[in-house]
Amino acid sequence: IFHATNAGVTSWHGFAQKIFELAKAEQVDLMAIPTDSYPTPAPRPAYSVLNGGRLKRVVGVKMPDWQDALTRCIPRL
What we know:
By secondary structure, this protein is an all-alpha fold. The chain is about 35% helix and about 0% strand. It contains 3 helices and no strands.
């Protein structure tokens, strides 16, 4: 089993910021909050990054940076 994630690291806040930027959304007031301020049914770690390094080491697949992939994806939606 391999984790297939794009390269790079971001938060949900950073991900949302990039989506709004690419969508050319105006006047969006986006506020970052700590993980413990957002209640979820299951406990979540404050920092959790998926590591797709094994996919690259074993199969030789290098995933593109998440920002580049999102830039290509948004216009198709």
